[in-house]
Amino acid sequence: MRKFISSLFITAIAFLLYACDMFAPVDPLAPAASETTVVQVWTSGAVVRGKVDNLDPKNDRQEKKSGKILEYGFVWGTQNQPTLEAGTVIKVGEDNPPAPFEFEREISRLAVLTTYYVRTYAKNEGGGVGYGPVATFKTDDYVFAELAIGKVTTTSKASADIVVNILSLGNAEISSFGVCYSPTNNEPTTKDTRVTINAKAARASFTANVGGLSPGTTYYIRAFAITLGGIIYSDATTSFTLGEPSVFTPKKSFTMSYSNPYDLDLGQLVSQNGSDDCWWYPYNERPGIYPKNGAKFAVLGKVNFDQVKYGDLARANLSADFINGSYTDAKANQLENETVIAFVTNQGRYGKMRIDAHGEDRTPGTAYGGDMEVTILTYDKE
């Protein structure tokens, strides 16, 4: 009996210890940090790109979570397997974005001809720290090529020839080179639009033809070269603007009369022979512009008529939809005075129209109201 009680007592103690352990705090799981990619290396620095696959893994025991990410970034050093305690930390963020996600940073002030080790890390609320696989790179004693943009020659209304001068080659071998450009980024990179020149790099001048451009748009352009030590750019950025097409119908004001067809190539009333681009307020219909024969329109709003460029018209969201001009339904009216409209005619010419004076909605059965005074300018075809 005494043995049985002793055995029962030992079993009870073991159960209590197990129960206490079951409800004890669990060890936090580490976030799943993923690979690091070395994007570019030069004499005293490098660009690395990291990725975190999973920020909030579950703990296998009790299905407890280790919590949100508190911190993530890179850790690097000259010894393999760098850690937060034995390495240099580049903290990227704490924002706990949806996984997976990527981030990129530059490592600077490195020694020449030295091997470095770098990996991603992530730390969560539970105190878990996860590391990604180690990537290595070696700085070199690179001397990079010198690049410059030369003459820019407009070859058409939608393209230009850009001269790239390679002034020196350096010792970082060039695998490809050309120009990169953007209408919005005044320091364009290869992540913007780029054109590669199909030639072997040499101390010489080369020409890149850049197409698909919009007249009236300013572009920023730089030379680039992809080398053994990374991507380099010309020091200076050049800008250029393609000239606008010639004007087909100069600025002209006229009155669009109620329920009549108009040719916007010439800005005049036409007979109903299929050359009309629109009707203004046809009989028994809502007041407004009715596109015809493939002509398209877009309301630009109350903007300065003279400052609207050809490129603005070519990029407008043109459509053959009816444009409501009813004053009776004021909320739906899109043709208030001083409104500018972009259009392309059925002949393929772009133009702009300004509403100068909008006549009142015509009362059925009367001969009054309904006209609209406009000013237009139409460009020639490209």
UniProtKB/TrEMBL annotation:
The chain positions of domain Fibronectin type-III read: 145-245
Signal peptide (from-to): 1-19
Q: What UniProt keywords apply to this chain's record, in alphabetical order?
A: Signal
Taxonomically, the superkingdom here is: Bacteria
Q: What is this protein called?
A: Fibronectin type-III domain-containing protein
- Annotated source species: Dyadobacter sp. 676
